[in-house]
Amino acid sequence: MKLIIKANPEEASRYAFEKIQEAMGSGAKVLGLATGSTPVKLYRIMRESDIDFSGMTSINLDEYMGLSEDSPHSYHHFMHEQLFDAKPFKKNYLLDGMADEKEECAQFEEIIAANPIDVQILGIGTNGHIGFNEPGTAFDSRTQKVALWQSTIDSNKRYFADEKDVPRFAYSMGIQTILSAKKIILMAFGKEKASAIKAALEGPITEELPASVLQTHKDVTVILDEEAAQML
Ligand code: GLP
């Protein structure tokens, strides 16, 4: 893994943006995208850039179950607001949280097989989750329905009026699906991510810490601010 530590999230996000630009310059056509607060600065930099994404395809990691595309809490809505409305892509693929589980997950795997991900952007949960793959998820998992941990519900409730409104289930790319990306960029900011980052980078490779599987991938760049790096 390549480790990059920047002074703050802004500089770290700028570095991530440069990596995406470089990959596009070398022919990358498919970006795997993440939600959450971590990539928000990156998406702002992408929005403000003069880069044309109209030849690019995007595929998102995950989506809450039971929320329609136009729900203000859906990851569809988040992605449109943060990036797609300002920067049109050729095609944006996101899981449909209202669709039938079996059909939707199988179809999503077909989409990824037909559009192999060149660069996958990842955040990390405080418990080491990637996408919505909570600790204990099998390393050979593909896109599936997942149950969210209470700690994930608690972290994400800030986006909802009430904790009760946070969906308990989601559809998420599996660990194996994520590993199929040619290049992975993991970003983490803030001291609350420091222990998950330490375990992911320096701990044993274990399903109990999903992000530790990234140690097995041949092209991972980890971009941290100083706070997220403070335990390394
Ligand atoms: C969420 C998302 C993940 C994200 C993570 C961290 O639950 N499903 O894709 O990486 O948790 O979120 P944040 O960036 O807000 O800390």
Strand order, largest beta sheet: 1-10-9-6-2-3-5
Give the proportion of residues in helices. Answer: 25-40%
Number of domains: 1
Ligands: 2-amino-2-deoxy-6-O-phosphono-alpha-D-glucopyranose
Helix-strand pattern: EHEHEEHEHEEHEHEHE
Q: Identify low-pLDDT runs.
A: none
Look at the helices and sheets and give the structural class: alpha/beta
Radius of gyration: 16 Å
CATH architecture: 3-Layer(aba) Sandwich
Largest sheet: 7 strands, parallel
Percent of sequence in beta strands: 15-25%
Count the beta strands: 10
**Overall form:** globular
- In the CATH scheme, the class would be Alpha Beta
GO molecular function: glucosamine-6-phosphate deaminase activity; identical protein binding
Catalytic activity: alpha-D-glucosamine 6-phosphate + H2O = beta-D-fructose 6-phosphate + NH4(+)
InterPro entries: Glc/Gal-6P_isomerase, Glucosamine6P_isomerase, Glucosamine6P_isomerase_CS, NagB/RpiA_transferase-like
Function: Catalyzes the reversible isomerization-deamination of glucosamine 6-phosphate (GlcN6P) to form fructose 6-phosphate (Fru6P) and ammonium ion.
